[in-house]
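Suppose you are handed only these lines of text.
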Amino acid sequence: MFNKILIANRGEIALRIHRAAKDLGIPTVAIHSTADAQAMHVRLADESVCIGPAASTHSYLNQPAILSACEITGAEAVHPGYGFLSENAGFAQIVEEHGIAFIGPTSEHIRIMGDKIAAKETVKALGVPCVPGSEGEVTSFDDARQIAAEIGYPVLVKAAAGGGGRGMKLAKTTADLTDAYGQARSESKAAFGNDAVYLEKYLTLPRHIEVQVIGDTHGNACHLGERDCSLQRRHQKVFEECPSPVIDEETRARIGKVCADAVREIGYRGVGTIEFLYEDSEFYFIEMNTRLQVEHPVTEAVYGVDLVREQIRIAAGEKLSFSQDDLTPRGHAIECRINAERIPSFAPCPGLVKAYHSPGGLGVRMDSGLYSGYSVPPHYDSLIGKLIVSGHDRPDCLMRLKRALGELVVDGIDTTTPLFHALLENADIQAGDYNIHWLEDWLAEDLA
Ligand code: ADP
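From them, the structure of the protein bound to adenosine-5'-diphosphate can be written out as follows.
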């Protein structure tokens, strides 16, 4: 096992990784920007290294500084968390070239899944169901028009290098396609330096359902069921649950097996998430994330597994500590992303937290680096905590969530807590009846 792990991230996920490492008896190194000197994970880590100024390009994305921090502290492994360098194949490669373990997949797998065309081709060949669309890249407008006519409108023009919803354009008719094709290419070229695009059928009212997978370096791979992350605002997940209210045991076992078999086949190392849109009882692959997800705790609650602990063990060459037969889902879990934002505008609201009280009790987990007197810096993502509740079924979980949200105190800044109080009163949410457009429609109508 590693003698020391460097955590190349910040905020709640840095704390999450620190905790898993300490539970394994492994000392931790925090890296931080000048703006994060007072962060909780920095205070708790065994060592810390300031790697640059507030701007993440000069700190959390600063690869030479992070490698130097490894060298200075003698860390044997790097955990990248999510965001920042977690899906940067070049970083994973250079870390390993320095003889340091990257707690994540191989750079090759990160590279393949980071290119949406290559990812789709790879998983399709492994039997994973995909959205109907072009076979690979579409290189001319004439081809685009012909393929769109074959798959039927509406269609999406998507960037191979896309991310965060950028480089994606909808065409409802042939007339729209000219602009959509041109704009997707130019936007993608500007944002990612790559203008390769492909075409996909646009699904009108899907849910977002993702399958958690995990593989080790001994040829073992399992799935840990699905999460439903359909409640999104601007393609950002807001509220996630496990299991999905619309997936039954048989469907879970079937899609889970397809995913586990696929990652076993490619020799995938570590945790990953295969994301699908789900419409009319069919799954359609959209992408694979080669890292830990923000919403991983709902899976942990239902499956009784510490995914970060497994990540660390796998990176150290150990075998998965469970087999598929050991994994039985129990009950239900829901996560709410608590952001430092003002409702209803969602304007960022960083600043001094005058008082903080975390909810607790049975089935309640609060992953957050907040404390009274902490000042939320304005330079980063507005996620300041995740409230995860679990119960023996969904109604139980919703009641507990209401109770736990009522206990949460964050004085001094605004948070998205009122959004969740309002959502819990809604009949569709109570019934689990929503799709990927539901939240934005509801925000426009009911919260305006
Ligand atoms: P990104 O990496 O930019 O987030 P994704 O491929 O994951 O791109 O898609 C982002 C979001 O766009 C999805 O969560 C979904 O809401 C929507 N989307 C993507 N593909 C389709 C599709 N074929 N039909 C309908 N919506 C889609």
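What can we learn from it? The pocket of adenosine-5'-diphosphate is lined by residues 131, 156, 162-165, 200-203, 208, 235, 275, 277, 286-287, 436 (CB under 6 Å). Residues 207 and 441 are 14 Å apart (CA to CA).
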